[in-house]
Amino acid sequence: MAEANVAVDHNEFSCPICLDLLKDPVTIPCGHSYCMSCIMSCWDQEDHAGVYSCPQCRQTFIPRPVLGRNTILAEVVEKLKKTGLQAATPADHYAGPGDVECDVCTGRKHKAVKSCLVCLASYCETHLQPHYESPAFKKHKLTDATRRLQDKVCSHHDKPLEVYCRTDQQCVCLLCVMDKHRGHDTVSAAAGREEIQKQMGKTQREFQQRIQMREKELQELREAVASITSSAQSAVEDSERIFTEMIRSIERRRSEVTEQIRDQEKAAVSQAEGDMERLKQEIDELKRRHSELEQLSHTEDHIHFLQRCQGLPVTPEAGFGPRISVCPRCSFGNVRNVVSELKDQLENVCEKKMAEIHHKGY
């Protein structure tokens, strides 16, 4: 029966410590697998503490686990070796933008996983192995990979900063405690962080309270702005309505005054036209009489002249009405004055009310 071809990721069979294919693979209680020599060397460095941990998940074990060769895993690894599969560095092990680069790699740099405060250098998984395997690096202090290693080392003694000086509120090394900071109130960096973090927690709670208070004030201001906007819109609408009514009222009054003036004009013109007609008739009558007198004055018959004079009026006014005045009977000056006075009064009232509106506001 032909064997099925299965795609295998070599990372699944690589030791997380040496990054090579597993040699004498062993599986520790947490389930992770390592080369026997790699995990033994790593745990040899932890003998002094009596607590042993998994380099990957950091699960601890007490006492030191007894390791046995994982034969099934060893057989799988041997088959992979026979197929010619070579362990290669995955692309994601290379340093990218924002990653800390390994200080030992040449050419294309690998991504650093740890930094050593004694060496003041950062290492990838491969170049970090001597720190796990060689007793010479047993006392070196490893931290998560970081760029600013110098900030974690004492500038006076080139030792790792491990102590917090409460007196001077700064991190110092163990030699500083015996030297410049002798007699100061000092604690471990972990204890110092715990104290400060407690204070930070209190400060954070105060910030949270202040944030909540300010958010409440902000909400109140938003509601006030909404109320002001709504009130202003209502005031504008009411003002527009009232001013429209005022304008309509003034328009009505203007129409009434105009109508009254036109009625008075019509009456005065009608009366004047009647007087003019009567005057025309009187003029015609006077002309007729004047003509009769003119003709009579030229007659040569004395008897006829005397007889005719007896029937003529003695004066021109005889038989006619009173004299008609030619002065205008309606000048409408009073109306003009009253309307002008009304305008002045309205302007004065408007100025006073506008001042009240400006003073009182909303």
UniProtKB/TrEMBL annotation:
Which keywords are on file for this protein? Answer: Coiled coil, Metal-binding, Zinc, Zinc-finger
Would you tell me the protein name for this molecule?
A: E3 ubiquitin/ISG15 ligase TRIM25-like
PANTHER family membership: B-BOX DOMAIN CONTAINING, E3 UBIQUITIN_ISG15 LIGASE TRIM25-RELATED
Tell me the InterPro entries matching this sequence: E3_ubiq-ligase_TRIM/RNF, TRIM8/14/16/25/29/45/65_CC, Znf_B-box, Znf_RING, Znf_RING/FYVE/PHD, Znf_RING_CS
Q: Name one Pfam family in it.
A: zf-C3HC4_4
Q: Which residues form the RING-type domain?
A: 15-58
The record ties this protein, via Gene3D superfamilies, to:
4.10.830.40, Classic Zinc Finger (3.30.160.60), Zinc/RING finger domain, C3HC4 (zinc finger) (3.30.40.10)
In its UniProt record, a GO molecular function of this protein is: zinc ion binding
Domain B box-type residues, every copy: 149-189
Task: Kindly list any coiled-coil regions of this protein.
Answer: 204-296
Give the matching SUPFAM superfamilies.
B-box zinc-binding domain (SSF57845), RING/U-box (SSF57850)
